[in-house]
Amino acid sequence: MASQTQDIANQIETLGSRLMLLSHRLRNGSSLESQRTEILDATAQVNAALEGPVDDVREMFNHFAKAVSIRLFIKWGAFTALPPIGQDISIDDLARKVGVDSGLLVRYAYVLGAAKIFNRCGDRLSHTPRSLSLAATPRMAQFFFDEMLPPILASPAYFDKYGPKAPTCRKNSLFSFGHGKPGVSVPQVINSSPERMANYVEAMKMMDRTYPFLAPYDLSWAADVAKETDRAVVVVDVGGGSGHSLKEIVKATRGLSMERCVLQDLPKIVEAAKRVKDQDLEGLKFVGVDFTAGRPVDGALVYYMRRMLHDYSDEACVGILRNVREAMAPDSRLLVVEQVMGEPPSLSATASNIFMTSLSGKERTLENIRDITARAGLGVVKAHWAAGGEAAIIECAKAM
After folding, report:
1. How far is CA 254 from its chain centroid?
2. Helices (H), the chain
3. pLDDT (0 to 100) of residue 354
4. DSSP structural state of residue 392
5. What is the pLDDT of residue 178?
6. What is the mean pLDDT of each run of 10 residues along the chain (400 residues)?
């Protein structure tokens, strides 16, 4: 026991030194966002040094309690009913305001107070930045509770039925199974109601903010080459959706105009993007092609795929990447923007991997990405890492 205590003391001392270093970086100008993942990882290691098996089970239960409390407070409008920051309200008054029994509301309020989601002092509740965020943008929390929790809970039954192997079929996904819709694609399930679709869109927007568009990659070389040659197309955004990535790319790249860019996606998505008539996309060429079945525009300098490959199995990704390779010229580059799991990966990256498993996709390590690109006849030139996270822009070229 004395030896175990000494080991824990040594771990705490090491982690203390690490936290001091992170504190020093922040005081010397590093942004909180760039250090956030490492700070969270360090504090998680402190917990891991102290916790045992019973704590693991208790933590699982605590997370479920917090999740359902957040979801019910959103459902009842209790977050939005809290007074402005700096003011407080009694639990009884809040219960009357939202039409919920006080004896019921208090149980969930205690959970959220203990989790520091909002402030609780006796029977008085007041906002924190966290509860304000849930009041202002509740749809992401709704999406993960309503849409992602059922597949997680259904996982044992799914693997009993189909065997303990990684899901790869997008029409027989764990997500669809968990929602009682086996054989139905994920988009069809999500599109089954306007509320579900709205929650999905908002959740994806918020997750999108954690991925780079272009930085730290410098695309100015492509704009320079385009000036000196007759290359009509500089950038093709494969699976580009509404064009928001291309707007950021053009804005960040000196000498690149929207007229030298192409957005490729499913015909119905392309048509929807064109109907918006976004002035920032004026001059953009739209091409309606299913990237899983057809190749993009030939001969562009840069092909760009952002937050897309993790939706698909390895075999499907190899097919998609082969389509791109066939369109590439010898000097073309493919830029793949994805979360890249480190070794060891962070807890958030591994949790995201479970999320993608339910959609028959997966998060990947850099070696996983090297494998699928090599099988498609491509080679990884360099991984350009974004600051403060596990996202990267993977630069690829045709393998010779």
Report:
1. 28
2. 2-27, 32-50, 53-75, 78-81, 91-98, 102-114, 129-136, 139-143, 149-162, 174-178, 186-190, 194-208, 220-228, 244-252, 267-276, 314-327, 347-357, 366-375
3. 95
4. E
5. 96
6. 73 80 82 71 72 82 96 97 95 98 97 96 95 93 94 96 93 94 91 88 83 90 86 91 92 92 92 89 94 92 95 95 96 96 87 94 96 97 87 93
What is the distance between the alpha carbons of residues 339 and 310, in angstroms, rounded to a whole number? 8
Amino acid present at 339: Q
Residue 310 bears catalytic tag: yes
Residues 143-163 as b or e (16 or more Cβ within 10 Å = b): bbbbbbebbbebbeebeeeee
Report d(CA 241, CA 149) in Å as an integer.
Answer: 27
Nearest to 210 by CA among 337, 322, 104: 337
d(CA 374, CA 384): 18
- Calpha distance 300→287 (Å, rounded): 14
Q: Residue 214 corresponds to which tokens in the numbers above?
A: 């272009």
Contact 381, 370 (CB under 8 A): no
Distance CA 21, CA 25 (A): 6
CA 90 from centre of chain:
37
Domains recognised in the chain with CATH numbers = 2-136 (1.10.10.10), 139-208 (no CATH), 220-398 (3.40.50.150)
Catalytic residue among 127, 179, 244, 310: 310
Peptide bond into 156 cis (omega under 30): no
